[in-house]
From TrEMBL:
Pfam family, one: Acetyltransf_10
MF term (GO), any: acyltransferase activity, transferring groups other than amino-acyl groups
Protein's recorded name: GNAT family N-acetyltransferase
Domain N-acetyltransferase: 46-212
Keyword terms, alphabetized: Transferase
InterPro entries noted in UniProt: Acyl_CoA_acyltransferase, GNAT_dom, Trichothecene_AcTrans
Length: 213
């Protein structure tokens, strides 16, 4: 899956990054659904209709799969507010959601993608094949609510976890949705590995951050 993020960045203000629990799945999915409603890679795989509702349903399933495989979700929250301003999903080394692990969610994916299911499945397969062979943390998704884009929320989420990744001396990987986002992720030490082929939508770009010494 790809990442969605705005390249603008200012101060994130009084916002805290907290680990999510499975009970937070619905509100995390709502934030990701709103964030990815303008993502050309993901939206390009959807049939016409209510994009945000479809994406929220899709992300609820993906968040559950991520937790089920041993992955992690982190929320950027502001005191007194229920809805997370941003969400980051990470798969730890050895906790990747396999294609077989997605089979229980097939009904959800059929409801979301409908006649575009073949394109979505092939795109996901190609994305899996593009992952580095070396052990790594995978930034599966990072997104923020539209009204806080450019406020540094996404950067806060990314930096928070990269500090932990560096302590483990392993690499990190992500897919940028567009070429415009490559310079943004380069600020965090990621470097482009080139396009990740897709079917029926725009290609994402794989980006690798090598382990710290």
């Amino acid at each position: 899956m790809t990442d969605q993020q705005n390249s603008g960045e200012t101060s994130a203000g009084q916002i805290e990054v907290v680990p999510a629990a499975p009970a937070d799945t619905a509100r995390a999915a709502a934030t990701l659904g709103a964030a990815f409603a303008v993502d050309p890679h993901v939206v390009g795989l959807l049939p016409h209709g209510d994009v945000t509702a479809s994406l929220t349903r899709m992300w609820e399933r993906i968040v559950r799969e991520t937790f089920g495989a041993g992955g992690h979700a982190y929320l950027a929250v502001r005191a007194g507010e229920q809805q997370p301003l941003g969400v980051a999903l990470w798969e730890a080394p050895g906790s990747k959601v396999s294609l077989a692990g997605m089979i229980p969610g097939l009904l959800t994916y059929l409801r979301v993608f409908r006649h575009r299911v073949p394109d979505a499945l092939i795109t996901e397969l190609l994305a899996h094949r593009a992952h580095p062979c070396a052990p790594h943390w995978y930034l599966k998704a990072v997104g923020t609510l539209p009204d806080v884009r450019g406020a540094g929320v996404g950067s806060l989420l990314i930096r928070d976890r990269l500090a932990a990744v560096d302590r483990q001396h392993v690499g990190a990987y992500l897919e940028a949705s567009t070429a415009d986002l490559v310079p943004y992720y380069e600020r965090f030490g990621f470097r482009s590995r080139g396009p990740v082929p897709s079917r029926g939508t725009v290609d994402a770009l794989g980006m690798w951050r090598p382990p710290t010494a």
